[in-house]
Amino acid sequence: MRTFYKRALLGTLLAGGITLLGATVANAAEPPTDPGLISSVVADNGLVDSLVGDAIVEPLLGDDGAAAPVTDAVAAVVDDVTGTTAGTTVVDALVGDDSALDDVVGDGALVEGGTVGNVASNVDAVLDDVAAGDADAAVADLGTTVQDLGSDVGQTVTDAAANTDEQVINGIVGGVVTDAVDVLDGVGDGDDPLAGVDDLIQNLGDNTADATDTTGLLEDALQTTLEGGPTSTPATPVDDADGLLTGLTENEGLVDDLLGDSVLDPILGDSGALEPVTDAVGDLIDGATGTTAGTTILDGLLGADSGLNDVVGDGILVEGGLVGNLVDNADNTVDDLLDGDIDSVIDDLGTTVADLGGDLGTTVTNATENTADQVLDGLVTDALTDAGNVVEELLNGGDVLGAVSDTVQNVGDNVADASDSTGLVDDLLTDLLGDTDAVVPTDPTDPTDPTDPTDPTDPTDPTDPTNPTNPTNPGDNGTPGDDGSATVVGAAASAISAGEATQLATTGGAGAMPFLLLALSLLAAGAIARVSRRRSA
């Protein structure tokens, strides 16, 4: 029995030691991941960071920067003239230690991610694919580049508009209007007008500093561009007003009558005024190419199932979207202005800016996403594949005309997919003008009869535990028998050691030296156990 335990320990130690040794070698030999060409140019201590960040921006910014003597002198003059600390407050927030510029741009690394970092990484992926000769992957990565750029820009615009609403419109503009009213009221009451002006200037400085320091809109814009990516998908604001301007753009309004009902509606669709011309052009292209590409493209652009006809030529030109929301918010502003409610006018102006930013962000995000999907991944990818087929047929003396016809047909299909009522044209127009297609209600289905509940099954009796097996007697020539446990322990320990070490070899772990020492220790222990077994034998 003692000999058997020694053999189990010996196998475990040797297997674990050998596997750990191999994992150590693999971990030490794993090459580091190098940044791509463009990423390395904009990375910390790269060309751009060295020339722009380290050499120019960082030495200028901060309380002890090269610009501090000049900015401090300007701030002192403003403070003396106004009798406030507005000059110092604004200058510190613009270029001081607590400024957004110093926090994001002057922190030692110019580009740490964000829109610029994402573009650099994505362009690197495209260049790698081109260098490898993988055209399909290059087009796919180009689509990702466009989509990510649109998402980043859309989020930047959305955040900037929301911050402008809060910090510029409601903060700076609202504060100036409120303080100006207080000054006028003080003059009417015979108070010193200069006291009110001082408060106005001080508040203006404080609000400006709030927008430009590390908690303001400038910080958010710089972080999104240079450090952090988009955090959420822009949401489309809802319509919230009905007034004079809305009446001009709504159904049967002046704009809809002059542009929609009189111009666009009559020329779009299968029975529109352009149909004779488009049908003739489509037939001409079909006959010249031996395909239906001409008809397919023109139907997708101007026919009954086109995006233009679905959104613009459906009888109502503006049904919401960016234009509808902008008009609604303008109506609210006009109404409050006519009522003489200045505070509400400022609130409405802020809402207008925030909603416009949200709508622009949504439009840009959706447009770039659709461009990546339908133009790059669809049209361009298929065109590359078809061009390859044409070349192959030409080199092999095959059906070149057939391959060219397939290419033209696929181009027509992809263009139609992008321009019909399910494509990017429809989505873009919907984001801009809104579209509420009528939904046909479905007939309710008859309720199904409930099924009878099934009888519960009787629980099964638990089985009695089995008796443990007795160890077997030793075999001939002193061969140890099986005691039912030692083999399992030894095998499991060996498997665990091998599994953990294999995982290290696959993924790479900490430094190689600790695992090298552990591997050598296990091998040494195995060797000692081997010698001990021989002596005991």
Automatic annotation (TrEMBL):
Annotated protein name in UniProt: Gram-positive cocci surface proteins LPxTG domain-containing protein
Compositional bias annotation for Low complexity: 435-445, 463-487
Chain segments carrying region Disordered: 435-487
Spans through the membrane: 512-531
Keyword hit for Transmembrane: yes
Keywords: Membrane, Signal, Transmembrane, Transmembrane helix
Keyword Acyltransferase: no
Signal peptide span: 1-28
Top-rank taxon: Bacteria
